[in-house]
Amino acid sequence: MKQVTQSDAKLRELIVHIATLCGNDDDFGKTKLNKILFNIDFAAYRKWGKSISGQEYFALEWGPAPRIMKRVLTSMQTRREIAFQRKEQFGKVREKLIPLRDSNLKAFDRDELNLLVEVVSGYWDRSGSSMSRESHQFLGWAAAAPKEVIPYSVALVSTREPTLDEIRMGEQLQSMAQECLARNATAKAQRDNRRT
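Below the sequence we write its predicted structure tokens.
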């Protein structure tokens, strides 16, 4: 059996805790689990400069997911930490994740736990399909090739229009940047002339 890394262990605790929080959510399945994890980790990166799980996410057809998710879920099933309850809904089969143990809340600090509850609550009555459609609006997923890693830093990039204040600041910085570039180009040209 493969050794569980510290990062894998935290992902396992996230999975169990999210499944526990979503126990009464009829829309909770694998897709929704992936999207909740994605939203938690990328929100944590925006707030604190690091994810909670420490996992890489990659682009799949239905949106971002942790790269090691299949392996971790299979291992957790084998260890009897989770089970899947198959349920047909609207002509599709959903596999609802059922936790078979309590999560170790000591794996998370208070801010992380608050963020977990905030994200789960925010998506409570949303389907996995609607969350997938929303994740397709995320620049990191849209720009990634299939199965390409989505860097956390893309969470800091906004697609909103700049405010008037931001435009004014950009215009001020533009002239300053052009002056700096001209000075550097002149200095480089002088150094190159001295070498020849």
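The chain has a mean pLDDT of 87.
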